[in-house]
Amino acid sequence: MTNILVYALHYEGAFNKNSLGAVSEAARLAAEIGGEAHALVLGSKAELTDELCGTLGTYGATTVHRAEGPEGLSQPVVDAMAKVISDGGHGYALFGGGLLGFEIGAGLVARLDAGVTMEVTAVNARDGKLVAERPILQDSSISDVEYRSSVGVIIGRLNAFEIVERGSGAAAVVDVDYELSEWSTKATMVQRGEQRGADVNIEDADILIAGGRGLGKAEGFEALEALAGSLGGAVAATRAVVDAGWYSYSAQIGQTGKTVAPKLYLAAGISGAIQHKVGMQSSENIVAINKDSNAPIFEFSDLGIVGDLNKIVPKLTEAVKAKKGS
Amino acid sequence: MKICVLVKEVPDAAVEKRIDPSTGRMDRSGEKNLNPFDTHAIEAAMQLKEGGELEVDEVVAVTMGPDSALRALHKAVSLGADRSVHLSDEALAGSDVNGTGYALAQALATEAPDLVLLGQQSDDGECYTIGAVVADHLRAPSLTQVIKIDVEDGRLRCERQAEYGYDTVLVELPAVISVGDAINEPRYPSLKAIMGAKKKPLAKVAAGDVGIAPDRVGYDNARAHCGAFHDPPAKSAGQIIEDEDTNETVEKIVAWLDERKLI
Ligand SMILES: Cc1cc2nc3c(=O)[nH]c(=O)nc-3n(C[C@H](O)[C@H](O)[C@H](O)COP(=O)(O)OP(=O)(O)OC[C@H]3O[C@@H](n4cnc5c(N)ncnc54)[C@H](O)[C@@H]3O)c2cc1C
Questions:
Q1: How far is B180 from chain A (nearest CA, A)?
Q2: Pairing status of strand A234-237 against strand B32-34
Q3: ipTM over 0.90
Q4: Count of CB atoms within 10 A of residue B108's CB?
Q5: Quick one: which of A82, B72, B90, B187 could link to B34 by a disulfide (CB 3.0–4.6 Å)?
Q6: Which DSSP symbol is given to A280?
Q7: Looking at residue B72, which CATH number applies to its domain?
């Protein structure tokens, strides 16, 4: 019997969607290898109530291990998961996409001498073991990764695992008796989840005009706003430009931003990094404007325009307006 | 105090990367360069040193890799590192994340740095976990994807973007921090620095010199084994327009959008 332990990230009273996907996936896989899916949550007991933790049963977790500790940092979770895995003999640790899961998974690699695969897009059961599919080389090839360690760490790509209500009823909740390692107490959260820039709503838009570093400067977004206005859409952004302070975090698409699937996603001056792609690849129509014909974004766009956005975007706005006026 | 910066040589961005079908490993031949993300880590180290709030005595570039990795160290030194350490051993070839993180931690432990900095990811491996693996081995606090570091009473006040927005975290030293590319604009090395790079001290160390257990590293001891390679599901190639006459290009885009009822 091989059990799977999933880390369920929690923030302001709700579990992360990618964590729920990971719990669902663990339940599916555990059934195939003859084990159970367990979840680990960490935070304050006041917030992580029996009732909230129990809801993970809906997605197939049979037991929820609840640890008290500081939220939002990886190393306390490494301590708690390592303890639960050592006591319970879990064969795998599974994480949904995001950021914290990468750090926690990596910590477990060192702590438990475990093998790790990251950016996993699918997991298969084979002869009672799990094999992870890991896209490599800008997604041009997929490698099947097998584990040769007593614990295998599987870190999913954003949105890789579907949320499925596989369970029946609430999960049992047990408190974890663990100790923080000394170094886990040496990082302290000062502020979590700060929103930078105006709060914009992009999730309901049918049309998104997204801009990246190729815009050159913050003012570059003005042309995109005009284009979005002409098409009746909203403006989105990459992490590069949000980190630079050019645009709002609430408009960011990708691994540590939002996931969208509009009817049209027009990307201007965006290279198409994996961490951006994972947040928009399900869009119905993807159009890219990039001056570099080798930009990865052209690998997954339906219409690619190789050219200078400064020349193309203003003219496109005029042409759309003219078309609408006709 | 001492800052170690982890650096890596990666295939030049212009070189097409591929898997060698005979070995199942990445073909790392061809033009190589210092991982562009690592230049931000070196710059961060230099700014901490020059900022003067921490008394930084030296910045040491550390790499693990074959002989050719020397060039990445020379580049790192030309960008400001005072000396470098080259961990190189046949036994390390083909190590996975587990083995690489362990080996680097062993090399770092002999240096006993107060701070380890590295880039947010490597250009070729598309993995951003090494820092956190190294940190746990070194029993040090760690944070990845950091885009701002301020010194506050001998501790580092770090900002980074995580799942729900920007987090600010206070980290005590010694620590391991990976930095994002938004943290700074790396300087260009001066001609003098480039010329002088080869004269700066460089220590070449073998696995045994830093106490690396042979059964924890190398291809045969990988805890995660890359087996079969296969193609992703085929996606029909999109249409490409080269912009020559922008009026014409725009006309084509509008027609394309109109066909799909997007206007
Ligand atoms: C853990 C982690 C999480 C991350 N999370 C996210 C995330 O949530 N969202 C996200 O977006 N990224 C994320 N990233 C960052 C991601 O890896 C990329 O660095 C980022 O998406 C790049 O943004 P960009 O395309 O704007 O910039 P670049 O990669 O610099 O691309 C700019 C593009 O503009 C083109 N260009 C330049 N000038 C012009 C012009 N005049 N006309 C036309 N084209 C031009 C260039 O050819 C280039 O392709 C994350 C990274 C990590 C490691």
A1: 9
A2: unpaired
A3: yes
A4: 24
A5: B72
A6: T
A7: 3.40.50.620
- What is the pLDDT at residue B124? 75
Beta carbon of A256 within 6 Å of any ligand 1 atom: yes
Sole residue written with tokens 């584990």 = A147
Q: What is the DSSP letter of A215?
A: G
Mean predicted confidence (pLDDT) in B163-189: 97
**Do residue A217 and residue A317 come from a single domain?**
yes
Q: In the numeric block, which tokens belong to residue A150?
A: 């007593």
Mean residue pLDDT of chain B comes to 93
Whether A161 and A39 share a structural domain: yes
Inter-chain touch B133–A182, beta carbons under 8 Å:
no
Q: Please say if the pLDDT value at position A267 is more than 80.
A: yes
Give phi and psi for B47, each to the nearest 5.
-65, -35
Residue with tokens 């499925």: A164
State the pLDDT confidence band at B237, using cuts at 50, 70 and 90.
confident
Q: Where are the beta strands (DSSP E) in chain B?
A: 2-6, 9-11, 18-19, 26-27, 32-34, 58-64, 83-87, 115-119, 142-152, 155-162, 165-171, 175-179, 202-205, 224-230, 239-242
Beta carbons of A69 and A42 less than 8 angstroms apart = yes
Cβ distance B136 to A106 less than 8 Å, yes or no, reads: yes
More confident residue, B15 or A118: A118
Pair A157, A283 in one domain:
no
| Residue A88 lies inside a defined structural domain of this protein | yes
> Which whole-number Å values give the CA distances from A111 to A153, A199, B108, in the listed order?
12, 40, 17
CA nearest to B207, candidates B218, B222, B219, B220? B218
Task: Give the number of residues written for chain A.
Answer: 326
B248 in a domain, yes or no?
A: no
For residue A49, what are the contacts with CB-CB under 8 A and spacing of at least 6? none
Instruction: Domain count for chain B, please give it.
Output: 1
Amino acid at the residue A103: E
pTM of the predicted structure, to 2 decimals: 0.96
**Any idea what DSSP says for residue B233?**
P
Residue in B170, B257, B259 to test binding to A, most A beta-carbons within 10 Å: B257
CA distance A183 to chain B (A): 5
